[in-house]
Amino acid sequence: MNPNEEQYLKLASYVLHHGHKKADRTGTGTISTFGYQMRFDLSKGFPLLTTKFVPFRLIKSELLWFIHGGTNIRYLLQRNNHIWVEWPFKRYVESDAYQGPDMTNFEKRRLTDPDFRKVYLHQKHLFCRRIIDDKAFAKKWGTLGNVYGAQWRHWQKRNGGQIDQLKWVINKVRKTPFSRRMIVSAWNPEDVPSMALPPCHTLWQLYVNDGKLSCQLYQRSGDIFLGVPFNIASYALLTSLIAKECGLKPGYFIHDLGDAHIYLNHISQIREQLNRKPYKAPTLWLNPKKRSIFDYDMDDIKIENYHHHSKIRGAVAI
After folding, report:
1. 167 and 246 in contact (C-beta within 8 Å)?
2. Distances (CA, A) of 76 to 63, 79, 128, 210
3. What per-residue confidence (pLDDT) applies to 318?
4. DSSP symbols for 20-60
5. What is the pLDDT of residues 58-104, one digit of tens each?
6. Please, are residues 4 and 41 in contact by the beta-carbon 8 Å criterion?
7. What one-character-per-residue DSSP string does 255-286 give?
């Protein structure tokens, strides 16, 4: 029995059977519904999906990147995390600085042309290697704009100052846990045009009751097969980290989705996943010696007793 995973599987099934076909920015096409809520009781295990393998190391390295205010993929690549590479790579190969083989429309060509896919993977490998090895190149081509890390830690004020929203909200949990204003926003309209990908998880709110910390997320756009499993685990981890720092227990993670969609090239994968029986939920281990959310490193966060089905692969829509 895994009641938390059932929340996700019900979402996938609902959109698969009741969603409507809708065009999208990537040109892939989706089955979509508007407005859906899931509730995950964090006392019933950590909500990392078991009906397919979900690489937790990518989730925790990405979240630590957000927490530290990162906006450049160099930090991620140094930790073998490639989940944000496609957007800066696209910007690079479409620029005059790129002198390699033609990468026009690589998003679609890589899926249909095996010979081109080899060329694409090689060029992306060279790009990633150079991001890691060349600081100047990374500074120019590895940046994503003022994405999550910048908004959470360095929100720009009109007077030229900054707001550290993450430190602020943790302080509110400590000093005024009854507050209804414990909100962190990643959606900054002024910065949206310059971001590689405008924030999908746009706003989250904390709530304290009975010695427990809960978090509610509003996500404007949710890729149910690839993105949403990461988002669920990431915000469950964030909630757990803040709860520990503030001397609370994790309560609920509540996930509100705006446009919840399955890409048309993920339909068979979702069907396969829905035919699998969930395992018991794993548990989260946090280094008891670490007090502040800002002090954690990769080895301080672990998943234990993670039993899962095999990977199910699917291409990311860019």
Report:
1. no
2. 10, 5, 10, 37
3. 65
4. EEE--TTSS-EEEEEEEEEEEEGGG-----SSS---HHHHH
5. 999 999 999 999 999 999 999 999 999 999 999 999 999 999 999 99
6. yes
7. EEEEEEEEEGGGHHHHHHHHTSPPPPP-EEEE
At 100, list the tokens: 């390699």
Beta-strand pair 249-263/212-223: parallel
* Tens of pLDDT, residues 104-116: 988 888 888 999 9
Residue 131: CB partners within 8 Å, gap ≥ 6? 73, 74, 77, 88, 137, 138, 141, 142
Write down the domain spans for the chain.
3-69+164-304, 72-143
The catalytic residues are 200
The pLDDT tens digits for 37-64 are 999 999 999 999 999 999 999 999 999 9
User: Is 2.30.30.140 the CATH number for 3-69+164-304?
Assistant: no
Could you list the residues known to form a binding site, using ranges: 25, 180-181, 220-223, 231, 261-263, 317
Among residues 258, 209, 250, 208, which one has the least CA distance to residue 233?
250
Question: Structure tokens of 186?
Answer: 């990643």
Q: What is the DSSP string of 285-310?
A: EE-TT--SGGG--GGGEEEES-----
- Contacts of 292 by beta carbon, 8 Å cutoff, 6+ apart: 245
Q: Are 258 and 32 in contact (CB under 8 A)?
A: no
Q: Write out the binding residues for dUMP.
A: 25, 180-181, 220-223, 231, 261-263
Q: Which residue has the tokens 């076909």?
A: 21
